[in-house]
């Protein structure tokens, strides 16, 4: 299924994006839209430099979309408040609201992901698919998510990459989520937690093979199996080096996907025990 690909970009990450975004373009079909969404920090120079990467890239600055998004959030005061407070909220609100205007499904990727080789299938998924990371990382205590709110949480969810069906997007759930003071304890994973809830209630989901699409804090570098790397934590400093990896499409390795599951009671017990031992 041809679906648009979105990324949310900050001006400070432009230099990295100039390395990573061209690699995304090479894995898209000619008719596939690649939309860069400004987090509000873009100036004209930034916008022009992003557009120069490829004619396939469309840039949507905040001013262009403000009236449309605000009107769609007219009955969602907590979402509007959250959006005004925190730039990454655009990933949870603006991007899906823009996507569903013209498409039934969309793909999202962070700009700090290096797509090395054979990545076409990541941008053409027909099932809800998310990136699995090396730990359960949420803005809410897992005990509260499971026992107080009874939310379904996908296992080791990371929102750096995903493909999502627009019909599964639930703005009412986000409105409720961002209104709770006890679920936004770690600001930088609030948006990720919001997306985890969207996937948790949407039914069956899939994840790329973890050795092919790497998303973990400690990683020594690409192997012959590696197709893509999310540069989380201290790995961002490797963008230049690892972007020079061979992208020979003649290699037979293709992306594999595995069915995901939700966090279970035993996962919570294990996480609690590890925390107890650590302290």
Describe the structure in brief.
The protein has 279 residues and is an alpha/beta fold.
Topology (SSEs and partners):
Layout: E1 5-9, H1 14-25, E2 34-38, H2 44-51, E3 57-60, H3 62-72, H4 77-85, H5 89-92, H6 94-102, E4 105-109, E5 113-115, E6 129-132, H7 142-148, E7 157-165, H8 171-179, H9 190-201, E8 206-208, E9 213-214, E10 228-230, H10 239-242, E11 257-259, H11 265-278
Parallel strand pairs: 1-2, 1-4, 2-3, 9-10
Antiparallel strand pairs: 4-7, 5-10, 6-7, 8-11
Task: Report what the structure shows.
It is built from 11 helices and 11 strands. α4 packs across α8 (about 170-180) and α8 crosses α9. α2 (about 45-50) links the parallel β2 and β3. The chain has one domain (about 5-279): Spore Coat Polysaccharide Biosynthesis Protein SpsA, Chain A, CATH 3.90.550. About 40% of the residues are buried. The chain has about 280 residues and is an alpha/beta fold.
């Amino acid at each position: 299924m041809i679906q648009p690909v979105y990324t949310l970009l900050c001006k400070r990450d432009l230099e990295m994006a100039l390395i990573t975004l061209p690699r995304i373009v090479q894995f898209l079909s000619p008719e596939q839209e690649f939309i860069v969404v400004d987090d509000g920090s873009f100036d004209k120079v930034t916008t022009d430099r992003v557009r120069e990467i490829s004619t396939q890239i469309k840039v949507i600055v905040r001013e262009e979309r403000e009236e449309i998004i605000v009107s769609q959030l007219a009955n969602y005061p907590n979402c509007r408040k959250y959006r005004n407070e925190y730039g990454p909220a655009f990933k949870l609100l603006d991007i899906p609201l823009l996507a569903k205007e013209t498409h039934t499904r969309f793909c999202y990727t962070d700009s700090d992901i290096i797509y090395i080789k054979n990545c076409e299938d990541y941008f053409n998924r027909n099932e809800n698919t998310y990136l699995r990371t090396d730990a359960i990382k949420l803005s809410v205590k897992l005990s509260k998510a499971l026992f107080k709110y009874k939310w379904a949480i996908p296992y080791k969810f990371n929102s750096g990459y995903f493909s999502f069906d627009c019909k599964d997007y639930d703005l009412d759930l986000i409105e409720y989520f961002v209104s709770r003071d006890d679920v936004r304890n770690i600001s930088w994973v609030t948006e990720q937690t919001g997306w985890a809830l969207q996937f948790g209630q949407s039914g069956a989901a899939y994840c790329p093979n973890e050795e092919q699409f790497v998303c973990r804090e400690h990683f020594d570098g690409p192997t012959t199996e590696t197709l893509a790397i999310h540069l989380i934590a201290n790995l961002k400093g490797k963008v230049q080096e690892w972007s020079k990896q061979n992208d020979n499409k003649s290699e037979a390795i293709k992306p594999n996907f595995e069915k995901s599951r939700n966090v279970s009671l035993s996962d919570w017990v294990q996480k609690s025990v590890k925390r107890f031992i650590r302290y």
